[in-house]
Amino acid sequence: MTFSELISQRFSERHFAPDPLEPEKLAAIMEAGRLAPTARNIQPQRILVVQSPEGLEKIDRATACRFGAPCVFVLAYDMNEASHNPDVVDFGILDTSIVATHMMLQAQELGVHSCWVGLIDPSELRRQFAIPRNLRIISVMPMGYPGPDSHPAHLHEESKPTDELFFMEHYPSATE
Question: Domain 3-147+154-165's class?
Answer without folding.
Answer: alpha beta
